Amino acid sequence: MQGVRYNKRNHSQMNGFFNWLKTNWFFVLAILLVLPLVYRYLKDQIQLNKLQNEEIKGENQLVDNVNPIVRTQNANQITLDKGVQNAAADLAHHLGVKYSDAGHWYDFLNPRGWTENDAEVLRILKYQVRNYHLVERLYYEVYTKRRNLKDDVNKLLDSKELSELKNYYKQYNKVW
């Protein structure tokens, strides 16, 4: 292995760099410390903007779907089957989320949002096992404020009905 030959040109270049580094060490250190912080801040702001955009979409969707004509048009864009549309609306009603997502500050005072009708939810989900993907989409996009049906059912349904629902869906080779 050959070493780097020492000559005046190499020496003066290295000296020039080290002299520049001696005089500007503070700026180099500041750049090395500040750039990762700025990068992380910008990355967090982009993520926050995405979340806020989703929340604004949900609020706009909620306001749009208060009007029955717009709600019907949005539901018809997903499916024209009135039975599936009614099933998704009934699920929002029987789970109580329709009343807690009304968009008012006093929604927690509505007693219809405090309880669920587990038997009806179970009956609807059993009946709509083949159309579940449409019911879930209608529930998410039209009848609630961007809520996931599976999460709501897992959280709000009693354990007895939930296990019965899981066993029923297993018969159709579907995973709940």
Task: Supply the key terms.
8 helices, 176 residues, mainly alpha
Number of strands: 0
Query: Mind describing the biggest β-sheet?
Result: none
- Proportion of helical residues: over 70%
Cα(first) to Cα(last) distance is 66 Å
Judged by helices, strands and strand pairing, the structural class is mainly alpha
Number of continuous helical runs: 8
State the gist of this model.
With 176 residues, the protein is mainly alpha-helical. The protein has eight helices and no strands.
Question: Care to describe what's here?
Answer:
This protein has 176 residues and is mostly helical. 73% of the residues lie in helices and 0% in strands. It has 8 helices and no strands. The protein has helices spanning 8-64, 68-78, 82-95, 97-100, 118-127, 132-143, 149-156, 159-171. Helix 2 packs antiparallel against helix 6 (132-143), helix 3 (82-95) packs antiparallel against helix 5 and helix 3 crosses helix 6 (132-143). The longest helix is centred in the first third of the chain and has 57 residues, at 8-64. The radius of gyration is 30 Å and the shape is elongated. The chain starts with 7 loop residues before the first helix and ends in a 5-residue tail after the last helix. The model has no long low-confidence stretch (mean pLDDT 85).
List the helices and strands and how they pair.
Elements lengths: L7 H57 L3 H11 L3 H14 L1 H4 L17 H10 L4 H12 L5 H8 L2 H13 L5
Helix pairs in contact: 2-6, 3-5, 3-6, 5-8
